[in-house]
Amino acid sequence: QVQLVESGGGLVQAGGSLRLSCAASGRTFSNYAMGWFRQAPGKERDFVAAIRWSTSNTEYADSVKGRFTISRDNAENTVNLQMNSLRPEDTAVYYCAARGPYIGSVRLSLLPYNYWGQGTQVTVSS
């Protein structure tokens, strides 16, 4: 049973930084893709960033390129999202997701992720 648990959300002023972590358990994730999505009130859930565990290939939404960095830690079995230069429009519930096994060349943002965490709130004040 795959379990994803997010942490690190909170309240921060515009221009500040937060680091989200997703603790993954229940499987060996070496052939998985891991992603971060977000959902603001009244809006659909949107892709933010993703990483292919085996190769560390990454993909980002245009809105976060240059500000957010996704990484994975093999030793801790975590996927992290470093968020810098935060803006009020980044306010949302952030979800960790996993897709596995992932063997192929489909863009990480287009994968049908089949495991989801419960989400962590990120609020950026102006």
Could you describe the 3D structure shown?
With 126 residues, the protein is an all-beta fold. Helix content is 0%, strand content 50%. The chain has no helices and 11 strands. It has strands at 3-7, 10-13, 18-25, 33-39, 45-52, 58-60, 68-73, 78-83, 92-99, 115-116, 120-125. The strands form 2 sheets. Strands 2, 4, 5, 6, 9, 10 and 11 form a 7-stranded mixed beta sheet that branches. A 4-stranded antiparallel beta sheet has the order 1-3-8-7, with no helix packed on it. It is globular and about 40 Å long. The chain starts with a strand and ends with a strand.
Short synopsis of the structure:
With about 130 residues, the protein is mainly beta. Helices cover about 0% and strands about 50% of the residues.
Please give a handful of descriptors for the protein shown:
single chain, 126 residues, mainly beta, 11 strands
